[in-house]
């Protein structure tokens, strides 16, 4: 995948992955499964905290799904993630 991205770097801007795939800053690394509480859920999803995704996994962009979508106050929950 990385070699394909390098070959077509005029078209590929990054990766969705659990950890950083390259050492270059040329590609964005988007990490899914981010949650303030890093436990799993009944659907088998395993979460990492925003800090873990950035500091330990090298994420440039965090992908937060159900934590915001299932929240009663989505705007407030999104702000909580932004403040992390």
Automatic annotation (TrEMBL):
Domain of life the protein comes from: Eukaryota
GO biological process: 'de novo' pyrimidine nucleobase biosynthetic process; UMP biosynthetic process
Keywords in alphabetical order: Lyase, Pyrimidine biosynthesis
Protein known as: Orotidine 5'-phosphate decarboxylase domain-containing protein
Pathway entry: Pyrimidine metabolism; UMP biosynthesis via de novo pathway
One GO MF term attached to the UniProt entry: orotidine-5'-phosphate decarboxylase activity
Location of the Orotidine 5'-phosphate decarboxylase domain: 5-81
Organism: Rotaria magnacalcarata
